[in-house]
Structure formats: C-alpha cells, structure tokens
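Protein modeling request. Please complete all fields; requests missing the sequence field cannot be processed.
Requester role: graduate student
Desired output: 3D structure, token encoding
Chains: 1
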Amino acid sequence: MNVLVTGAAGFIGSSVARRLMERGDRVVGIDNLSDYYSVQLKEDRLTALSRDFGNAFAFEKVDFADNAALTDFARRHDFERIVHLGAQAGVRYSIENPSAYIQANLVGHANMLELARQRQSSHMVYASSSSVYGGNKTLPFRVEDRVDHPLSLYAATKKADELISESYASLYKLPLTGLRFFTVYGPWGRPDMAMWIFTKALYEGRPLPLFNGGDMRRDFTFIDDIVSGVVACLEGPPADDGAEKAGGSYAPHALYNIGNSRAEELMRVVRLLEAETGRSAIIDAKGMQVGDVADTFADISAIVRDHGYAPTTTIDIGVPRFVQWYRDYHHEA
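Delivered output (333 residues):
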C-alpha cells in the first residue's frame, strides 16, 4: 500500500512512516521543515528513514497550506490512504504567533481534506489534540465530553479541524478518523516538550522550569504505543452505515483519545529523569502558563473497543528508553 504521511519529518510522523515501511508499505512523506524547532533534528529523522528503507521512502519539502504546491505534488504521486500528522504544534507558541496556526492548522487541514476528497482516499487519519478539552473539569477526558471552551488558539484550531472534517464526512462520505493525542514522548521526540526540556536542563546543570510549581499531571504516552494506535486506526476506516461512531458522528467520521490512560505526577517524571541522568534537578517553580491546564487524563475505552489499542509502555520503562536515546543522539557522557 502507498501511504501519504504529512509531517513526515516530525516526531510522530517519522515514527509512523517507519512502522508502515517496516510492515511493507511504501511511504511518500511531505513536510515544510519549519524552524519552529531544530530543522537539523527533522533532517536527521528523514536521513534515518532514507538510510533504513531506501526506495520505499520518498520525501518532498511541501507546505500543505500552499494549495498550489500541494496540488502539484499530488499530481506526481500515487497513494491510497493519508495519515495527516503535519501541523503547527504547541500550546504556548500559539499565544506568540497565532497566524502560523491559522495557516497550517486551518487552511492546511482544509487543503488536505480537499485532496482526500478529490483522490477519493479510502481513509484519512488526522491529528487532533487533547488540548481540545480545554477547561473541562471532569477526569478522565472522554470523547463524548463537550469541547466548547478551548484555552488556547492551538486548541481552537484542532477543534475546528474536527468540525471541518465532520462536514466533509457528512457531505462526501469521506472516511475520516481524528486522534486526540495526549502527551507523547520517546526517541526522536520534540525539543519543545517537557521530557526533552528537563533532560537537557539536567545534563547542562540548568534549572528545570516547572509551571504551576510542578503540581501538574500528564497522560504521558510512549511513541511506540502511539504509533500502534495510529496504524490500527488506519486499517479500520469508519463505515458509512448510519451508525453512531466514537465521538458522536453518524457519518464515516470517528474521534478517539489516544493516550496511556494514566495521569502521571510531573514531579515523579522529574525523579525518574534524575535517576537516569545521574543529575539532581534545580527546580525553577513558575506560575501556571496562560492557555495551559493542570491535568490531562485520557479515557481510551473507545479506541480499545474499536481497534484493540493496548498501550504497554509505562513511564518507568519509557523514561530510561528516552534518556538512552537522548544520550546517544547528543553523545552525552
């Protein structure tokens, strides 16, 4: 099978591309290689994919928010299914640079839906986010919960993506699956996320910035488990049968939480990182960041029921695996 993966130079995108090719699929990947974080890291991910899979992996630098460029790219490539993971990520950055989110997450997502419609794609899996739950007070977060009160523009764009997708599924019977990712970590992770930030600070002997004084809980989910869930969903497109889907749609459009279904204390993660790095943390306690939430916790019963999703990597196992990769990548002593 030929699969188009957007955000192929990203953390989750490159990991999904790897898994697809490991099972024998051919992947064509696109990414605009934005400088939101290290372009070198993105290029290193691509280099590893090309080295390990040769001609099974094709990559082009394409901004899917540029409809003319996307159309030109699509004209030259064949693919049956789409895994749309490219986006402008990050809650905090959306406060500083909102236009990047409008362009990538709204214009870009609409372009990808239109491409899927024109190609009559058999299934498009796309990235949403746990951020859509915003100020919800009830834990764990359930896909049946209302998500009408986003606390950041990033969250608002992801909720909008779900709504636009619902309209395409309803109008054109386009099979779509949206995945609300929780806090993903692991090898090749993102430098703007806590696991990387804390590990880097520990090795450099700098303070760890802990928002809300560290009194936070996150549903940390290891990348291998996330990838298994994405691929399982790709293999099971929602049917156009009039039945209610996860998330409440009667069109061929399903929404799932994809997490570890455990809310880990942030300070516990810090202690695990201290043990793995052999360094003691210098805590820099800060107030709650605007647009952020204190707790995330995924109810994953829907994706377990429909796709057999079964995360197996606990934080005790995942943290050492990340730190070992980080050491190898940075040649830490």
